[in-house]
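Sharing a chain and its predicted structure for anyone who wants a worked example. Both blocks are below, sequence first, tokens second.
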Amino acid sequence: MRRHSGKLVRTPSRSSRWRGIAGACALLALAPAAVAQTPLRDPASVPPSWTQFAQLVKYRFEEWLSADDAIAARFRVYLKAHAGASDGPPATLIVQAWVNPDGSVERVSFPAFGDPGATKDLRTILSRGNIGERPPPEMLQPIRLRFNLGAAK
């Protein structure tokens, strides 16, 4: 357990984070950083509450990607089947997320994949939930998260 915005938040174990992905792919947020789209801010210069919220967004996205539903499963199959292929997903993916004041995801942006279905699936997965907390006051958006997309072979 850890404190986040005055609330106790469960810190997931490493195994629970990978439950839905095990063996299919490794989807890790490498360096979540809350930065403004223009101008970009050095992650070291942003308030700690922004970084904590970006980490929470990263965690929620990982949860949703490892969910036991048809869309998330189909996206994981795509990642595994197309990893390293010229038409496959990039090795590193930057996702920009805009979060509404109520914690719902307003929209996400990322470069399209070679497969329009996979692009639509990822957009659906990342846009359909609520982060569970409000963004910090005056937090600049979008929140930029860098993901390493690599399949276990």
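Comments welcome. The CA atoms of residues 19 and 66 lie 7 Å apart.
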